[in-house]
Hints:
Layout: H1 3-24, E1 27-32, H2 38-49, E2 53-57, H3 60-70, E3 83-88, H4 92-106, E4 110-116, E5 119-121, H5 123-131, H6 135-163
Antiparallel strand pairs: 1-3, 1-4, 2-3, 4-5
Helix pairs in contact: 1-3, 2-4, 4-5
Amino acid sequence: MSTDKKVNADKEVIISQLLAKVNASPFLIVIDYAGVSVPEFTTLRASLAGVGASCTVAKNSYMAKALTQAGLPDITDALKGQTAYVTGESDICSAAKVINGFAKTSKKAAYKVGILDGAQLEPAKIQALGELPSREVLLATLLGTINGAGAALARVIQAHVDKEGGAAAE
């Protein structure tokens, strides 16, 4: 087997692995990691793993081919320089929150572009997703709002009953 055929076979394996990652994830976050040290990058990867996300480094041309094969938006213009790709099981907000925190403390990583459910996201939108409260906090807020409305209705009904002297209306 010639060296060129082995390189092409290796390239195809890598592209198919990237394709599997992007197909399994509802989102892709592309970050510039220029200047990030190996220990810092290891910390970022561990933090992302804690929220069900992973960070992959691959040749930009390989990722571009995987994205094309997946039928996702063409983000080739953003695939330049030192680029890392974040994918996850379900929650882009948690992954973006980790990246926001890392970028704030390290002053090194920056968003390039993102894809969420097949739609392209600008860096500011990804950052904003990372600033949202956690899913649990949002659900608690929603439940509090629903409970508040129900409690207010119960108070109005009770006030009406109290005003009428507790007698059933006829």
